[in-house]
Amino acid sequence: MSAAGIIDCHVHPTLRVGEPPAACAEELLPFADRMGIELMGVSLGPIFFHQPTREQVEADNCFNAGLIACHPDRFFGYANLNPNDLRHSLAEIERRIVDGPFVGIKLWVALCCDHPNVDAICERAAELGAPILQHTFYRAGGNLPGESNPEDMARLAARHRGVTFIAAHAGLNWGMGVRAVADQPNVLVDTCGFDPEAGFTEMAVAWLGAERVVYGSDGAGRSFASQLAKVHGADITPEARALILHANMRRVLGR
Length: 255
What we know:
The protein is α/β, with parallel strands linked by helices. It is built from nine helices and eight strands. It has one domain (6-253): TIM Barrel. The chain is 43% helix and 16% strand. α1 crosses α2, α5 runs parallel beside α6 (174-181) and α6 runs parallel beside α7. The longest helix is centred in the N-terminal third of the chain and has 17 residues, at 54-70. It is globular and about 45 Å long. The two termini are 15 Å apart.
């Protein structure tokens, strides 16, 4: 694909448990090709565990490492961590990022990102230049135990200016989420995790600048196309669209 191919910063493998990484690639790549997606950032696994054990964390990371090994030109990885187990989390960073092939960190709902345990993870991420993709929700009816919202993300980012954070889903309630992280220049938002609603991309660009918005699909839980519609259908400049679809993530990934 061309240098202007789309980068999807937020994808999950969703095949049945027990199927190999190659089968996952066989399922995902034709859809990605049809939508012009060159690179996909993968994390977690076929089953999402709120409090994953060491074995579950390692199984997810091994699966995604296998996916990257099958197609290193099409996938990059975020190391799945459970910050409640800080010793293991730091060991997984060494195993998956320092020793390869992953380039970043994924934190889901095991522990609120404002917790002190996450500071040690951020310190190592800063040393390695590894971005952190952090799930953020304002969930209707209240967040899950340990689930982070964009205000938690903003407090963490203020303590770790040397880390690039991606506030996944822009908080779900994106009007609140964009405002919550606006004052933290090291926080980007991605486009995924909610319906293709009009106005999100325009607001994110107006409040954050196009340099702080990146395309993510949350595939295969969401389709590539429905999430691309938020970018292609937005009233923004062609230059802003190019930043969101590929140039910003190339900068984050050092490509």
